[in-house]
Amino acid sequence: MLLQIIAASTREGRKGIAVARWMRQLAEQHGGFDVELVDLAEVGLPLFDEPNHPRLGQYVHQHTRDWSAVVSRADAFVIVTPEYNHSFPASLKNALDHLHREWAHKPVGLVSYGGVSAGLRAATALRPVLASLRMFPAGEAVSVPNFSQHLTDDGEFVPAASAEAAGKAMLDELVRLTGALRELR
Questions:
Q1: Domain boundaries, the chain
Q2: Structure pTM?
Q3: 136, 177 in Cβ contact below 8 A?
Q4: Residue 185 has pLDDT above 90, yes or no
Q5: Model confidence over 70-81: pLDDT tens digits?
Q6: CATH of the structural domain 2-184, one choice from 3.40.50.360, 3.10.20.880, 3.30.1490.20, 3.40.50.10490
Q7: Residue 18 has pLDDT above 90, yes or no
């Protein structure tokens, strides 16, 4: 089973990529999945520009066909997202909107980070979008408050014990959900 860790922030100088790298490492140690980090900054999708609705899967642009191939090979996802203005970043919404059936019937875990709010408003705003794509958000999630306090001078993310425990619980749930949803795909 392949788990893709999707790093949602694409800003220059972003710090949250360290949270995504930590999540990748935690998932690799967990052992329930093969793990791949998908960095939206590297994917570099333009604003949604397909002439046909994604539900049809009739993609005319190579960047969308490439993105479809990446997402199609995953069995489950963990989305690592910051909170921007009480929601999730436009880069993530754009990446989700480019596709449709590639997301369907796959479980997704959420890792949110931010200041005092821990990115929880971003996670809350994201859930209905995921549901409309027929994804299954795990009940277990990771919320990292004041995440910049957990960054070393080298930019590495060192989580609190509570984040580590929440991440393991989320991965356990994703393994169960992935197996249960396999027949729907």
A1: 2-184
A2: 0.97
A3: yes
A4: no
A5: 999 999 999 999
A6: 3.40.50.360
A7: yes
